[in-house]
Please model this.
Amino acid sequence: MTRNDSRRYLIAYDIPDDRRRARISKALGSYGERMQFSVFLLDLNPVALVSLTDELEDLMDSAEDALLICDLGASHDANQRSITSLGRQAELPKPQSFVI
Model:
């Protein structure tokens, strides 16, 4: 059986501290693909999203750091997504299938 509850998220951050920025980048990289220096694209099910959000909140300084999570829709439904890239093209990751 395939899980269809994963959604595609675009996550961008503005972290002034080098050490925190490196830790947050590493955490995001373990869940998805880097699209630009501070932008990641991730396919996450609800449990993974909560887990990642908790991990990022633990790494952040809420007074200095900013992180934006944009829900782009169901990761399995490419017809519902629209992503436009200008300049050097980054390769978009293919949606992952989950099998239980």
The first strand starts at residue 2 and ends at 3. The helical segments are 18-29, 46-59. Residues 27 and 52 are 8 Å apart (CA to CA).
